User: What shape does this take?
Amino acid sequence: QSHEDLCEVESLRVFVSRALGNEAGQRQAFERAIAACRTATSVEPESGRAELLLALTYYRQAQNEIEAGIDPRPRLDLAITGARHALDLSGRAGTIHELLALANTLLAEYQGSHGSDSRAALDEAIANAQRAAQESPDDYRDLLVRMAGYSDYFNDMNRDLQQEAIDRTENEAL
Assistant: This one.
């Protein structure tokens, strides 16, 4: 099993322990995932996948900290920095831009922005990623959108449906 695979397994354990609401299990899962992903990024420094999984783990940890009344900014900074580094290393721009938008929105919410303002910022970031996907589809091959009750890869949709997704996202921001 590669270091990247171990990083992925431990990151999935974070998700499962979070879903089960097991606080002690969550702390251990975060520690194991962060250690495994840090090892993977040090052994395979060009691994965008391990860097993205580490950033996602930090993002999930920040969510937990907010729920526990703890300042999430240090974890969000790590998540944003890691996501940007993963963007430099990998072709998964769609997934990474979504994580950046979520992390920045969570940070804005924590710092005092409320409800509709932060949702509008997220919708704007998503619409910007969708427009960028139209211009550079190879950089956004993992970008998923939800339309009419189903999800589809943005780049598999025809240009009219892509524009409809962008328009709908922008309208939700209003």
